Amino acid sequence: MRKPVELGTWAEEAARRLVRADDSDPRLLTALAAELREAAADSRERGPVTALSYVPEPRLGELARIELSALVADDTHPSLSVGLLRRHLAAPTADSYRPPEAELRTLPAGPAVRVRHAYVRDVGRDGLGTVLETCAYGIRADETWALVLLTSWQALAHTDALCDLTDELARTVRVTA
C-alpha cells in the first residue's frame, strides 16, 4: 500500500513545476502552493482514484478540479446501471442553482450518462454565494462497478471549454481486465 503524500511538500513541488523559472514573484509560488494544497486536501476527503488540478495559467490558479472515482456494487445496489448512475448524479440538492441536465452517451469504456449541474455554495447572510459548476460522467463498466469522472469549477466564463475538456477526457477512459 502506498504511503499518503504529505500535501504541503507535494503542493510546493507542483507549484514550482508550474511556475516559470523566470517569474521572480515569490507570492505567486506561495499562493499557488496554498491553493494546490487546499485542492488536494479537499479531493482527499472524497477519496477518488485520482484527482487533478487543471492549471493552464499559474497566475490564475486552479481553473478546474478533475476527479475519477470508482463505484462498486454492494448490498444496497447489487447491480449498477446507467439509470442508477443518472438518478444519483442528476439528483437535485438543496444547493442546486438550476436543475441538472442529464443525457445518455456511449463511450469506449461503456454506456454512460453525462450530467451538468450548478450549485450555490458558501451563501452568506445577504443570500449571495459562489456558483460551482460541474460536468460529470457516470460510466458503467459492468454490472458490478462504475466510474465517475467529475470536473468542477467556479470560473463561469470557461464553462463551455471545461465541458468540452470533460467530454474529451471521458472518451479517453478505458477499462482493462
Gist of the model:
This protein has 177 residues and is α+β, with helices and mostly antiparallel strands.
What tags apply to this protein structure?
177 residues; alpha+beta; 6-stranded antiparallel beta sheet; 4 helices; 31% helix; globular
Describe the protein.
It is a single chain. The chain has helices at residues 7-18, 26-46, 82-89, 159-172, and strands spanning 50-54, 64-72, 96-107, 110-121, 130-142, 145-153. It is α+β, with helices and mostly antiparallel strands and 177 residues long. The protein starts with 6 loop residues before the first helix and ends in a 5-residue tail after the last helix.
> What structural class should be given to the helix and strand makeup?
alpha+beta
Fraction of residues in H or I helices: 25-40%
User: Oligomer, anyone?
Assistant: single chain
Mean pLDDT: 92
If you compute it from the alpha carbons, what radius of gyration comes out, rounded to the nearest whole angstrom? Answer: 18 Å
Shape: globular
**Proportion in β-strands:** 25-35%
* Number of separate helices: 4
- Enumerate the strands of the largest sheet in spatial order, edge to edge or round the barrel: 1-2-6-5-4-3
In terms of per-residue confidence, which ranges show pLDDT below 50 for 5 or more consecutive residues?
A: none
